[in-house]
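Second opinion, please. Please look over this fold, written as tokens:

===
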Amino acid sequence: MARGTEKPRRPRGRPRRYAPGRRPVLTFRIQEAMHNELMKAAAENQRSISEEIESRLASWAAWLKTKADIDEMRAKAAAWVDAARVQAIRAAGLTILREIEGRPTRVVVDLETLLAEADGIARGLRSGFFEGPTPVIEPPRPRTAEEDQRLMEELKAIEGRLEEAQERTRAADAAAASDKSGNEAA
């Protein structure tokens, strides 16, 4: 045969399974039980131990990415729930303002009332099913003299707190008005 007509020789050894080029080699130690498990899994999946390790590492990386996506979705859901809660509180405030007669410029509402109203609005936006047992409504009964006296004392205490809140509001309004007039004069 002439020199130029020879077939190219095939390289020695097993043919390459992957694209030409050098793949990184990792060397590490593992426990005997893990090695046995890898050998068994590699045989079942018709892979080499290296291919089994690479497959498991790829699955682990995919799981980490999936977990990150789940965490991101959780954060978005929490933000959505928080936004819905804020909307319910705003609606509760507007509902309370609408129920007040006249044209108030300032309304003092305790936080418990506002949150209770918001909870009622939020529950109204949900399905019509109750969480827990249906409440039992007791028939009205006449109050005793002790109950009347206790309720009157509670009312007087509430009136006192309201008067204190009104005084604080008037003082704050007067201070704001004097600051405003002082700033305009300057």
